[in-house]
Fold this protein.
Amino acid sequence: MEPKTLFDKIWDAHVVKRVEGGPNVLYIDRHFIHEVTSPVAFLGLKNRGRKVLRPEQTVATPDHNVPTVNQHLSIKDELSRNQVETLKRNCEEHGIVYHGLGTEGHGVVHIIGPEMGITQPGMTIVCGDSHTSTHGAFGAIAFGIGTSEVEMVLASQCIMQPKPKKMRITVNGELGKGVTAKDIALYIISQISTSGGTGHFVEFAGSAIESLTMEGRMTLCNMSIECGARGGMIAPDETTFNYVKGRKYAPQGADWDKALAYWKTLKSDEGAVFDTEYTFDAANIEPMITYGTNPGMGMGVSQTIPTGDGLTGTDKISFEKSLQYMGYRGGEKMLGKPVDYVFVGSCTNGRIEDFRAFANFVKGRKKADNVTAWIVPGSKAVEKQIIAEGLVEILNEAGFELRQPGCSACLAMNDDKIPEGKYSVSTSNRNFEGRQGPGARTLLASPLTAAAAAVTGKITDPREFL
């Protein structure tokens, strides 16, 4: 038998039909929905007189538009309130499990799936949200889809997709002090660019990747689409199995043994061929920070901002425009640059491990007076754990307060917007112009680098404190 990649094994097992010279019809195991990309899809079903084919394979939660304070009150913004209420109504009508605001299962869609054990190795998973790639950390094929495709999956439990090319990115060696999964992600994107993965599905491999926790792997796969890839994945191993075991929707008893036996086959065979390969050395990665207006404009926190020498034509124009928007100049150091806001949260860094790292760093220190900090858990379960572990006291003592779960300042769709011209060190995934609010300036970083900025009030190398 010809050696197969992990991606091929899962994809081929889910192909219902191959269209000659066209896309594959792919069966979908899990469909996550939220309030932003589902209303029009449900309307489409209604207009065609269709019902949701397999409601038990769909899970819903509102996250993008929800406030992160006073969630017990009615949502003030009318559009947001309407979207959330519409989602609830659609779920009731079609018998879909709905994790509403304030309930135990509520949270950011890509955080609640894994923590409930809904996300499992070998699955195909979609959601009308680009960062669905997060679930690939479990050895699943997970990718974002558009609203018309959401309707397609609701109606048929299938989707039409051209099969992507395959890429393997190997990171070997030991990660340095203060270097996290977020830094690996930003480093890779800075090396291969925001279009380097276009048309591909990425498998992350190598000793540095295997050493990551499940939380770290989710962060890395979450960011995989920022290099233009359709998604990212990591072969499941003992770390994966231990994480899934015993969770609410994980297989139990004999079903567990059967699932585990299958999951253990989910790895790329020796000699499997990838269309594109990259290899990086973990020793070359330091805590990262972005200086521009796309996730590929990242650098080691101790380095100097590139000057753009050697760039020509539109590349040079967009580079200069980006620095102008940020108010930075090539050749300057990032260290010491002032910071106004710090945001910890999102589907990238809103898990318990992220808040442990942040709290551990700020323990015994004080928030800088010039910094406004938004500390936003990714789910009700994470919020509960932060409280149970006493992290909330550490945060309060240092001058931080914990908000309630939601996407928050990741994307300026709710009340948590960064004001124009202000600098925000953010643990989220995108730093496009206006992503965190009109005119906001976003610097992407890990929770540790965010913590260093929060206590010093400026861009700081977290390794100085470790």
Q: What stands out?
A: Residues 68 and 404 are 4 Å apart (CA to CA).
